[in-house]
Input
Amino acid sequence: MKTAMVSAVAAGMFLLGVGAATAQSWHEIPLMEPTGVAFVQGRYQFNPAGRNHGAFEWTGKLRDTSANDRHNVYMRVRVEGHGWVRYYGKQRQTVRMHHFNWDGAQQYTDDAEVQACRDLGTARLDNCSVPIHFKP
Output
């Protein structure tokens, strides 16, 4: 009787864990490919309150697709309507990125935008993909 009860409790805990893991599953970020830059194999998730600051977590590969243009590439991310944060790649290379963005005044993040850009210097505007907006 006691082992049956322990087994039932263990099975219930396992099923609750699977439900929580499913709720925190990764989602795909569509390909972003403006001239000179590509963000590929992108994925994201919104962490719950109490885990990684309740951050918007994202990962993927940032690629410089115009190796001879001498311009750098970067990702722009913003959460909860705050200013954009830049994460630079490297010229003529592909860089794996994995970052967390959050608003310290909130328990969890539920609003984020992402863009892939090519830095054209100070004289010209950078060219960027259309911002992709995410909500849980």
Q: What stands out?
A: The longest strand covers residues 37-46. The mean pLDDT is 88. The two ends are 42 Å apart (CA to CA).
